[in-house]
Amino acid sequence: MLKEISILRIGRSVRVTEQEIEKLFDRLSGSLKEHKISGWVEKKNIPAIYTAEEIAGILNLSVDNILLLLKSGELKGFKIRQGRSSWRVPEQCLDEFVKKRVAGTRIEEKING
């Protein structure tokens, strides 16, 4: 995903236009974003993108465990910059991870049960 959006550098700062962000999300999700009708904004089919901290709260795990899952590839996500809180995980990837874990638990229960 590197170099897929146009940026503007101002000193040490990097600026990205709202249109470039929308283009990026359109490529990521393939969904419709916003339709402006008479000043109202209607949102449709916008997938959630979670931070590692949010996923830790959802799954009741530590952030360190989530980071390990992301780095190992068990939980799919992408980095938006360098640093600890730079991971983003699309909703679909979180759903797939949970389904795999639930299926794995059911198999273990049958073997041990």
Rg calc: 18 Å
| Estimated helix fraction | 40-55%
Biggest sheet record: 3 strands, antiparallel
Alpha plus pi helix count: 4
Q: What structural category arises from helix and sheet content? A: alpha+beta
| Nearest-integer average pLDDT | 76
Key features of this structure:
3-stranded antiparallel beta sheet, elongated, 7 strands, two-stranded antiparallel sheet, 4 helices, 113 residues, 2 domains
Describe the structure.
This protein has 113 residues and is an alpha+beta fold. It has 2 domains: 1-46, no CATH class; 48-113. The chain has a 3-stranded antiparallel β-sheet with strand order 5-7-6. It has helices spanning 18-29, 52-59, 63-72, 91-112; strands at 8-10, 13-15, 34-37, 40-43, 49-51, 78-79, 87-90. Strand 6 and strand 7 form a beta hairpin.
Structure in a nutshell:
By secondary structure, the protein is an alpha+beta fold. The chain is 46% helix and 20% strand.
Write the layout of secondary structure elements.
Layout: E1 8-10, E2 13-15, H1 18-29, E3 34-37, E4 40-43, E5 49-51, H2 52-59, H3 63-72, E6 78-79, E7 87-90, H4 91-112
Antiparallel strand pairs: 1-2, 3-4, 5-7, 6-7
Helix pairs in contact: 2-3
